[in-house]
Amino acid sequence: MSHTPHELKEDFPEFEARISELKKEDHHFRRLADEYHIINREIHRIEIGDEHVSQFDEESFRKTRMRLKDELYAMLKS
């Protein structure tokens, strides 16, 4: 298990400029990116032991993060 936050710009360095551009210009992308950031930070807090949740909730957070990341990646590629 990794204790490193999965920030969008770190996971997709080739899209760093595009991420910044879309956050400024596309309300839907910005909303998804903000939601991704919030859930990503929650998962990180769970990983480092600052938050304690059930295994079911942690798995749900991870699935949501993966869904958001997939959707954001599709938007970055288009």
Strand content: under 5%
Count every helix, treating DSSP H or I runs of 4 or more residues as helices: 4
The global form is: elongated
Approximate helicity band: over 70%
What is the ordering of alpha helices and beta strands? HHHH
**Poorly predicted runs of 5 or more residues:** none
The rounded distance between the terminal residues' Cα atoms is: 31 Å
Evaluate the radius of gyration.
Answer: 13 Å
Average of per-residue pLDDT values: 93
Biggest sheet, in brief? none
Q: How many domains, as an integer?
A: 1
Number of β-strand runs: 0
SS class: mainly alpha
Textual characterization of the structure:
- The chain has 78 residues and is mostly helical.
- The protein has one domain (8-77).
- It is 74% helix and 0% strand.
- The protein has four helices and no strands.
- Helix 2 (16-25) crosses helix 3 (27-47) and helix 3 (27-47) packs antiparallel against helix 4.
- The longest helix is centred in the C-terminal third of the chain and has 23 residues, at 55-77.
- 8% of the residues are buried.
- The model has no long low-confidence stretch (mean pLDDT 93).
